[in-house]
Design a protein that fits this description.
alpha/beta, five-stranded parallel sheet
């Protein structure tokens, strides 16, 4: 990778940051109660990864986590895989999620399908108790799997918490998923119950899901019951099902099953773009301690905050969003088309007086699309309560950082609780941008932002506490050089297991095959001496031309910076004989633009001058679209396989894609 200039500083912590933030209060608590003092974030991070037992015990104690049995140690065995966390602890995720008293509603929900919904904490507890009672009446108990085909609505949160309260195991697929994708996932875990919607609206479109539910049901013989949530049509009842109202008809006392620390909480799935999705099992305890740490200390969330992250129920960011309840924040749910009627819709929702989002989370592609469309959020919405913007799903390039600080809000004040909204459509007086990266595998981020460290354009600000992230080059850690992103010490939210992987072989092959005892994540990363880092794309999609390696994210930043290009995807087809191979770039032109020789030359010139002459594509082709997962990730490896002659249906699972129809366009360019 060519030497990279450090990004310019866009935001710095104020002098009184330790008095105004939750991580500052944690530092004061460490000093007062544990005699531990840290002058800066870097020293705090180093302690957190060098003394894992000590660090995670302080998270347990600082946040007053509850166990039905005594807790003496955090880390009993540090092996990877196979670490043993909090031996003997008996916990329940739902008990912690429902113990807080938020300032205002517990949940705020907005939808393009039905009217706004808000639930107080009392109402949420009552709904969870009723749902729990309904599950028990239908024979659901500890260890049973409860599956959902639901959008991001309060019923999904209620059902997750009720399932967890029993010690049953939750798993969800978004209703945007096609039948095959849902069955590929849920068949692996043999669910006893399915909760499903009749349909939904996406912008102005009515999407009926009755046929898909019937097909899914027919292919899941383990199902004993199906519950309809009548969402598209309030009076709907799918054939031979109970309704949500029938499930929650009877009141009951709220109760929680004490569970071992690693008892399964939910099963999440890998994207499934190149094969059968991996069923990743996460435990009650691991999610509990990790999400308290990251949401309170890194995202600075707590009572009084309105926490929004645009997500469907098929992406781990939904689980992350729901965990806002753990720290007393109010999750803001949104279901619908984020671009309807335009890309300002989510910003207007966030700034509405009855919503008042303080933390706005989204994807890097969404922020870049807003930039390209000329959206100025601070001009179309009152974002005066907004303190933080989160970005994930793909690396956010420098121009994305710059746009956030130019168009969403300048930076300065760090008040941890929302202030009264100012009149007019002004931006936030202060904004902390957190570009974060992690994964479904850990159901969290392991690099991102923090109120204690500066924000530099194009850089992820720090490695998260308790996450020993390093860059590996030829099996050794490097600083200031690009290497494989690895985690060299265990984290409590690493998977309990893969479902059905009795001997652990599939789990070990996924993360520990390249470097035994070290988690290899599959990204390229550069870690600087101050702990900031840059992720430059998937390591299995690296562009290696003449010995010069480059992540795809860097190329996209240049190509999509041209106004004539709406989207792009690049693959490198290696030459088995050792030659340079073919570097093939696909672009989706902007509306009204034709990819001609002049535009090809301008793309080549930009890449030659801004990246390297070796990374000028051998071929540039126009395509109607770039295939993406439902969470917005580009499918570089499946396209590479198509170019090498694979059947598109085998190269990628169409049901897991946002735009499966575009795959066929790439067949014309195969060898």
């Amino acid at each position: 990778m060519p030497d990279r200039e450090r990004g310019r500083v866009l935001w710095e912590p104020p002098d009184d940051v330790r008095e105004r933030t939750r991580i500052g209060r944690y530092l004061a608590w460490l000093d007062s109660y544990r005699g531990l003092s840290f002058p800066d974030y870097d020293s705090l991070w180093r302690w957190s990864v060098d003394d894992l037992d000590g660090f995670w015990r302080t998270i347990w104690q600082h946040f007053h986590l509850d166990s039905a049995s005594p807790v003496d140690r955090a880390l009993a065995r540090p092996d990877m895989p196979g670490a043993e966390w909090f031996p003997g602890a008996l916990v329940n995720y739902a008990a912690h999620a429902l113990r807080s008293e938020p300032a205002g509603p517990a949940i705020v929900a907005r939808s393009q399908t039905r009217h706004p919904v808000e639930l107080s904490m009392g109402e949420l507890r009552d709904e969870v108790a009723r749902c729990r009672a309904g599950l028990v009446r239908l024979g659901v108990g500890r260890g049973d799997r409860v599956a959902a085909y639901l959008p991001n609505i309060p019923e999904a949160v209620v059902a997750l918490l009720a399932t967890a309260s029993l010690g049953a195991i939750w798993s969800s697929c978004a209703p945007e998923f096609g039948t095959r994708s849902v069955v590929d996932r849920l068949r692996q875990i043999e669910p006893a119950m399915l909760l499903a919607v009749d349909g939904y609206r996406y912008g102005a479109k009515r999407i009926d899901r009755a046929r898909e539910v019937a097909d899914i049901r027919a292919q899941l013989p383990s199902l004993r019951h199906v519950i309809t949530v009548p969402y598209l049509d309030p009076g709907a009842r799918l054939a031979d099902t109970l309704t949500w109202d029938e499930l929650v008809a009877e009141p009951d006392e709220l109760a929680f099953e004490p569970l071992p620390f690693d008892h399964p909480l939910y099963v999440l799935y890998s994207s499934g773009t190149t094969g059968l999705p991996k069923p990743i099992v996460h435990g009650h305890g691991g999610i509990l301690v990790e999400h308290h740490k990251v949401l309170a200390l890194h995202n600075d969330l707590g009572p009084g905050d309105r926490f929004f992250w645009f997500s469907t129920t098929g992406w781990m960011m939904w689980n992350y969003l729901v965990s806002g309840l753990l720290v007393g924040a109010t999750p803001v749910l949104f279901d619908g088309d984020p671009g309807d009627p335009d890309l300002g819709a989510l910003w207007r929702m966030a700034g509405a007086g009855d919503v008042g989002v303080t933390f706005f989370g989204t994807s890097a592609p969404f922020l870049l699309a807003c930039r390209k469309a000329g959206i100025a959020p601070a001009e179309v919405a009152d974002l005066s309560r907004l303190r933080s913007v989160g970005s994930t799903g793909a690396p956010l390039p420098g121009e994305g950082f710059d746009w956030v600080y130019e168009a969403v809000g300048p930076a300065r004040d760090m008040s941890p609780a929302p202030t009264a909204a100012r009149a007019g459509g002004a931006g936030s007086p202060d904004l902390l941008l957190s570009s974060v990266s992690g994964g479904t595998d850990v159901c969290t981020a392991f690099v991102g932002g923090c109120p204690l460290v500066p924000v530099r354009s194009g850089e992820i600000s720090c490695r998260y506490l308790g996450a020993k992230v390093e860059a590996y080059l030829e099996g050794r850690p490097v600083v200031g050089e690009q290497g494989e992103l690895v985690i060299t010490a265990p984290m409590p939210s690493m998977p309990v297991a893969f479902w059905g992987d009795a001997d652990g072989s599939r789990y070990r092959a996924a993360y520990f095959e390249d470097h035994p005892g070290v988690w290899t994540h599959g990204d390229w990363i550069t870690v600087y001496d101050d702990g900031a880092c840059v992720i430059t794309g998937r390591s299995d999609a690296t562009l290696n031309r003449g010995g010069v390696r480059m992540g795809t994210a860097e190329l996209y930043s240049v190509v999509e910076g041209l106004p004539e290009v709406a989207d792009s995807l690049v693959v490198h087809l290696e030459d088995p004989g050792g030659g340079p191979g073919r570097l093939v770039l696909f672009v989706t032109p902007a509306a009204g633009v034709v990819l001609d020789d002049d535009l090809r030359e301008r793309i080549a010139k930009a890449l030659r001058s801004e990246l390297s002459p070796r990374h000028v594509p051998d071929e540039i082709h126009a395509v109607p679209g770039v295939p993406r997962t439902l969470s917005g990730k580009k499918l570089e490896v499946p396209v590479k396989r198509i170019l090498q002659g694979a059947d598109p249906d085998r190269a990628a699972s169409r049901g897991s894609l946002a735009n499966p129809e575009v795959l066929d366009a790439y067949v014309a360019f195969c060898d």
